[in-house]
Predict the structure.
Amino acid sequence: MSLLGGRAYPAASMLLGYIARLAVVLPRQLFAERVEPMSPVRLPMHVWPGDVDLYLHMNNGRYLTLMDVGRYQWSLRTGFAQLMLRRQWWPVLSGASIVYRRELRPMQRFELVTQVAGWEGKHFWFEHRIEVGSSVYASALVQGVIRARGRSLPFAQVMESLGVVQPSPPVPDPALPWRTRPTAGESRPRP
């Protein structure tokens, strides 16, 4: 049961768990050492009871939710969050592809690794990895854009604002299907 009218609301419970995790993780990032935008950031975590499904392992949807936290961490550690707020930029995700390799059990420790994987035009890609020791338990690639005043910005402009003037690394292969837009009547290729 929840405090919300005496009924159980799973969505509210998940939201409260997400907010609690942000409250634990993000304040530490405000005072953490700055990192270069192209460098990976690592976030030690563990599976909370609210992350677990009926099969007693981390719910598949929770992986992507925790990867949001990794992008928040990257934003704070690189200075992008401050730049974003100052310039009124807003990131919007437009795709995600994830591969699960091993399950995570309740209270199991793991490390979330987040880094920019590349960009092309207005699109950017972040790579996320869930690691335990030297083993990758899950990996994901997410695509997005940065919106400002009703339009999407060229991501190279965003990176230049962070001091990155190098060209993008090669766009990751799993992102290739996302790079083409279907015309009317065509179905979109799947990543």
